């Protein structure tokens, strides 16, 4: 029962991680630059994401521009696009597989098949967490290095936005869920190896007595 509740908790974490991955991939605020200027009325907030750049004006106007050209983008943005989409796909596969392999569901067949499915889903979650953690770390490194560069003007410097933090938290949820699923299956297999099922052996004297009883009956 404890293993089933732990798997259910890991499944909830994986759901939060998958939805967070999708949100972080689509949000435009991977890096933010707030330029107040000389007047608060003309203040603008510039946000840059993986797929679009948005500008929010203090007057209430909001405009976004899609990034159509892939080759003109920096390498870290291209890598972030690829790995974040891969993370979303792997997390979706992990949710589908672990739904079959969880102990609290009636899908997946016998216990061994469920354990294998849960382990495969846990591996998908771990790979999805790594795929989501790498681009967020790389993107954050580029933001910090540009922010500390003295040759770059202040108007071109940015800070990490909410999408980066969402990606970090989602990757952590997916990693924790994957480790829980893999470790729960490993413990069950290890327990089966250490404590094999007992086989009932009848003593030889009992078998001989039964044989003698049968012969006497025939005589």
From TrEMBL:
Q: Does the keyword Transmembrane belong to this entry?
A: yes
Query: What are the TM regions of this chain, as residue ranges?
Result: 84-102, 117-140, 161-181
Source species, domain of life: Eukaryota
Q: Where does the UniProt annotation locate this protein?
A: Cell junction, Tight junction; Cell membrane
- Which Pfam families does the UniProt record give? PMP22_Claudin
Which GO molecular function annotations are given, in alphabetical order? structural molecule activity
> GO CC annotation: what is one?
bicellular tight junction
| Annotated keywords | Cell junction, Cell membrane, Membrane, Signal, Tight junction, Transmembrane, Transmembrane helix
Record membrane topology: Multi-pass membrane protein
List, alphabetically, the PANTHER family matched. Answer: CLAUDIN
Entry function: Claudins function as major constituents of the tight junction complexes that regulate the permeability of epithelia.
Protein name as it appears in the record? Claudin
